[in-house]
Amino acid sequence: MSLTMLPPAPARAPAAPGPRDRFIDILRVFGMVLVVVQHWAMPVLSYAGGRLTTGNALAAAPFVTWISQVMPLVFFAGGAANAISFRSAARRAGLPDTRETGRAARERLTRRPSAEKRTAWEWTAREWTARRVRRLAWPVAPLAAVWLPLPHLLTALGVPPQPVEVAARTVGQLLWFLAVYLLAVVATPCLLRVRAGVALPVLAGGAVLTDVVRFSGLEAAGYLNVAFVWLAVHQVGFRYADGGLEWLRGRRAAALAVAGFAMVAALVAAGPYPASMIGMPGAISNMAPPSACLLALFAGQLGLAMLLRPTLNALARRPRAEAVLTTLAPRMMTVYLWHMTALVAVAGLATIGFGPTTPLPGSAAWWSGAPLWPAALAPVLLGLTALFGRWEEPAGAATGRHVAVAAPLVGGALLTLTVTGFAPGPAPVIASIALVGGLCLVSRPAVAAPPRR
Fold first, then answer.
1. Residue/partner pairs of 53-58 with CB below 8 Å, 24 or more apart
2. In the Cβ-directed half-sphere of 47, how many Cα atoms lie within 13 Å?
3. pLDDT by residue (tens digit) across 89-117?
4. What is the rounded (10 degree) CA torsion for 243, 245, 246, 251?
5. What backbone phi and psi angles, to 5 degrees, belong to 2?
6. N or C: which end of the chain has fewer CB within 10 A?
């Protein structure tokens, strides 16, 4: 099966006039593909006596995660895309651009009464947020529809319950990204009105202060960095969308890359930050909750990405690369949501059906078998993407009337499914109902066109 066999992507209006920013598209596609590859390379599986034991192969090579942990770049690209999209919506509503200053801003601000401007801005923010909430949550509906009954079906067919529960929980853990990204989406209209010179230092400073409190003994305080770290990275995406990172090229970009990775090395050497940028069992995590070390990692990755930007843009103009981006970019949410289902299906069949144990990570046997995993998993994922990719585009139209209620419902549902997965029990069912309820609150049924005479 090849990319050309996937159904055509649904037509979408461009977020802003002019050509798409292919650099942002490349970061999003590359980031998600690398996430998939990383997750597929991680499992160390052993099955005996009806119980599945799991480990993480990257524990033997933690420094690899300094490159493979690309979620900071994904949030950066998301910030740029959200800024472009919201400002486009604001222009269509006749609102002044949040980037305007001085005389131009004063002239535009005086064209209508302040109450009317405020009402127009609030309406635009609600409608834009509603569209984004729907686009984010809609692809989760088929995942829930498949995985809520699937554990019960597998158990009824004789599969031992413990590995089924492990699989159901693992698939749900991926939804943490959507829950946090939803927070970034909801915050976008307000954060765009705050000067980056104020918001970014506050968010980054909050991340550092949170780590001080967390590592002083109050571990729970670290979860404040879910907002501070990811919103700070997202805010840098705003700067890119404004053209504020055009200076970051050549030697300057290389210097930022070196400084960022050097800061990561210094933080890891000084402690208490671990070398791995992904969570490892029984160890302090840089990801759950996120630590300020990820900001240093992001600086290094951003410098490297901006250094390669001219090359990547030139590559994106080639017909084959353009075709790949055009095919994959509108389906990356589907790829992300279903890649662990592909892993569970193939690994479950191989481990439980045939009983092999993963070789010692880094051994000759492990390296010789490593290429076989993508070869086995990719066709399954392509099939799932072809089947569920159409859910990337929500049916009907958006309405922002109840978005203030819908966003917490969807966010709470995603957070609950992150914690519980789709393991048998009432929590995943209630969360899925809340997800559908939130989608209904921000959805308006499409009006059928009158029949032609």
1. 54/166, 55/281, 55/358, 55/361, 56/278, 56/280, 56/281, 57/358, 57/361, 57/362, 57/366, 58/276, 58/278, 58/280, 58/361
2. 20
3. 888 877 766 555 444 444 554 454 566 66
4. 180
5. -125, 170
6. C
Residues 345-351: contacts with CB within 8 Å, 24+ apart? 345/380, 346/373, 346/376, 346/377, 346/380, 347/43, 347/45, 348/159, 348/163, 348/167, 351/45, 351/47, 351/52, 351/163
> Which CB contacts under 8 angstroms, 24+ apart, belong to 84-91?
84/15, 84/16, 84/21, 84/241, 85/15, 85/16, 85/128, 85/132, 86/125, 86/128, 86/188, 86/189, 86/192, 87/16, 87/192, 87/241, 88/15, 88/16, 88/17, 89/124, 89/127, 89/128, 90/121, 90/124
Report which listed range, 111-115, 343-347, 352-356, is most confident: 343-347
Give the global pTM: 0.88
